[in-house]
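ok trying this again, last paste got cut off
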Amino acid sequence: MDLGELWAIFGPGVAGAVFGAGWWFWIDAVVCSSVNVSFVHYLPGIFASIAALMFNCVRKDDIDYSPYEEGEWRLKLWLFFAYVLSFVSLAASVGLLIQDSLVKSGPSVWTGTADARNIGVCYGLNGNNLPSPKDVINLYKRNQIDNIRIYQPYPEVLEALRGSGLSVAIGPRDEDIASFAANQDAANAWVNTNIVPYKNDVSFKWITIGNEVIPGPLGSNVPAAMNNIRNALASIGLIGVKVTTVIPGNALGTSYPPSAGAFGSDITATMTSIATILAQEDAPLMINVYPYFAYSSDPTHISTEYALFTSTAPVVVDGSLKYYNLFDSMVDSFNAALEKINFGNVKLVVAETGWPTVGNAPYTSVSNAQTYNKNLLNHVMQNGTPRRPDYIMPAFFFEMFNENLKANVVEQNFGFFFPNMQPVYPFW
């Protein structure tokens, strides 16, 4: 059997499979993304499908290859229109792809890869004048923010998240961690109450056991609590949800230079247990990274340029690694700390980072906040850190709104939006 015969047998099937796969990837991208895709983006696929049907309405044996005046001109005209339709569909799809890649306002659901922007924003509720959760979720979607982090399982927020397509990081109250560690039934009850009713409509991606409870009296409970929550998720068949914890910068006993990064001696055993669990599940360790606090507490030794990603020359040279910004230095201190406990394979996710606009002039300002957040967004979407150059790290910005019930003015003013949902500064 020669190549021509093989192609005659298998060619139509291969062509159909490729065509079907194209539709499958497109539908998957649309369904899994929070972006509202306009109807015009469906048209190339629709017309390409019509063209394919037109081609398949003609049998090869029916085609008369004689000149047009002697053959079946109607059949050839039909095929001509099918070819034109297929070509226009291809040209339109390429044009839309290029447009969406170049124009910020265009859908980002499929510009080469689906849902490639692994960026989120934290949603806190420490305010008495905040918009409804439904309005908040719609605000996330309008601004093409695909990931959301909430600090407790607020039922009204979970209801608003149904069918939104947003990927969710959620955690229990810190005061519940000890009970989860001591009792599998307590962990089961939390999952049955706060995850099970929503699991078919809400895309849970991370469950964070503790927000900055390490170091601290609750920290030693975290490994056992993580295990019991994992068991509870497995018992309901919910796979793919990563159970982790969130630690602050002071979890490091040493952080400078980045290669010297090490966990505090009082938490090394706890962090080793946590890293063991994370490595087993290929789950990340979540960290809160705030160059603002380091810069504002020591502006004599930390330059504005180093804190805001605007330095054009390396500020810290650590062996063969060069650091142009404080963010990378802080993250790589955690990477080095994981290496020192033999878990350098555990990846990091930034659970919080941001810059306040008010409360501690001249370090807080709209200009500084906009510069830091914009440069950080561009950086983490394109670059790893010097120690992990090939790893594009997911990150959550802190935070969605200014919250007037926070403890002090600085803490109240990290938001991208005012409570009336107007932007504090242009960003998204």
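PB: full thing came through this time. The chain has a mean pLDDT of 88.
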